[in-house]
Amino acid sequence: MTTFHYFRSVILCLSFVVFVTCSDSSDEKDSRTVFNYNEMAGISSLDPASANNTEDIWGVNQVYNGLVQLNDSLIVQPCIAKKWFISDDGLTYTFTLRDDVYFHDNQCFEDGKGRKVTARDFVISFNRLYDARVSSAVSLLANIDRTEKTGYKGFSALNDSTFVVYLKEPFSAFLSVLTMKYFSVIPYEAADFYGQDFRRNPVGTGPFKFKLWEEGTKLVLLKNENYFEFDGAHRLPYLDAVTISFVKDRETAFMELLNGKYDMLSGADAFNINEVLDKNGNLQPVYAEKFNMQKQTFLKTDYLGILVDENIDIVKKSPLRIKALRKAINYGFDRVKMVKFFRNNIGYPATAGFIPNGLPSFNEKIVKGYTYDPEKVRQLLIEAGFPDGKGLPEITLHTTDNYSEQTEFVQSQLADNNIKVNISVDKPVVLRQAVASCEYNLFKKSWVGDYADEENFMSLFYSKNFAPVGSNYTHYKNPEFDVLFEKVIKEQNREVKNALYQQMDQMLIDDAPIVPLYYDQVIRLVNKNIKDFTTNPMNLLNLKRVKKAGH
Fold this sequence. Notes:
This protein has 551 residues and is of the alpha+beta class. The protein folds into two domains: 36-245 and 529-548, D-Maltodextrin-Binding Protein, domain 2 (3-Layer(aba) Sandwich), CATH 3.40.190.10; 298-521, Dipeptide-binding Protein, Domain 3 (Dipeptide-binding Protein, domain 3, Roll). It is built from 18 helices and 21 strands. It has helices at 3-12, 26-30, 54-63, 119-128, 174-178, 188-194, 250-258, 273-276, 285-288, 313-316, 323-331, 335-343, 374-384, 404-416, 428-436, 455-458, 479-488, 494-511; strands spanning 34-38, 68-70, 76-78, 81-86, 92-97, 155-159, 162-166, 208-214, 218-223, 230-231, 234-235, 241-245, 264-266, 291-306, 348-349, 395-400, 421-426, 442-448, 514-527, 530-531, 547-548. The strands form seven sheets. Strands 13, 14, 15, 18 and 19 form a five-stranded antiparallel β-sheet that branches. A four-stranded mixed β-sheet has the order 1-12-9-8, with no helix packed on it. A four-stranded antiparallel β-sheet has the order 4-5-7-6, covered by helices on one side. Strand 4 (81-86) and strand 5 (92-97) form a beta hairpin. The two termini are 26 Å apart.
């Protein structure tokens, strides 16, 4: 018996109180709906404190809730907190909690029955994030005020339903930060009961509750019959269960999708886009009959980074220290062709700034980026002191195998414009470490938004965030940019924030420490019997309103 069939049998015969029983009734069997998807990269933890990659976040999102959540338009909405109040000085956030939210039933509780969530649970859950042994969120807590002013407590429970957070400085993106899965509530009983094994024995409040996990094979989540959110008069979720498989081979996974085992595959790397899509990014007719394709703006910018800190020896010796040359590289290749021919039109050519399509301040009419312009390249090479490329040494571009075709296209077009580039293909871990250590002058990177605010993207260019301590990998430093950054993170007015971010983004384009390539898209293949399955620019998997027809 295969592992899959073994676990299927176990699930079928658990008891009639779970989502499937050992009944022979076809009517009963047809009434149960299970959403199945494959996760090629696997899941390493279902502890929200360490949810730092898409795979883990997707799983955690089914099991846990936080104070607030994002809707598909990236607007912060109530969740366990039904309302909140921000003090006039922007330093105190007071959340009023719902009184009908309960943890999943679990043996960690004295009677096995999940208890009501209180404000004290959030205090304990948030304080747990300071423990670097279990959490990846420590840096997000830097602005929490744990000084004498707050009694050395950054968080407090005024009563069972009132939770308060204290900040050192106003931070307009703070509510967006709280939508991250790190800030989910957990019961202290579960963390104590399971200890280090809590990562694979999750206990939350979410629409689905944990049933079983065979690492590397299958994860099963069952419907939470006591979930607190409703869709009109209907208690969510609609699905009876979610199963996640961990098939690493994309061809095998795609065949399972074709055979109906999976309801969805996500990501351009989950299938052969050259086979499934035409060059315009549409489904080939044979696949359009079986699947719906979802394409959605994604908060992700792919770019080339350029080290510009002239205090570093390799920059002093590099022609890339010259702004005119960096701008020439930006004008020296066709982003539209790159997206069409090497990504089958998945994504948008990055002809504006670094801030991606999908965030409120994005505006190509205001932030003027780069398009392919050989004449401007010629003029800028003269300005840089390398007319027709004469005297310009070969520049090395560091990338990984996943992006070799794209970078070779850039290399070819730059060569046509008298800029010679050598490509060095590194292993991902080598590239990451070298870029963080400022060892490369020119490198391929991408940045995915951790939360839905432009601050997350602009922080890459704030001078106090220099790598390796921070994520300013280019070591870009512009005092005027820094002043605007420190101003915008305190600003609550959305229109004012938009104007400031657009001004900052244009500075980046003009100074050219980066070469924006494209703004990415979420892409999913979904079986046609799946209904009300939405996407969002955070690429967060939300299954609580999904319905599955034909069962």
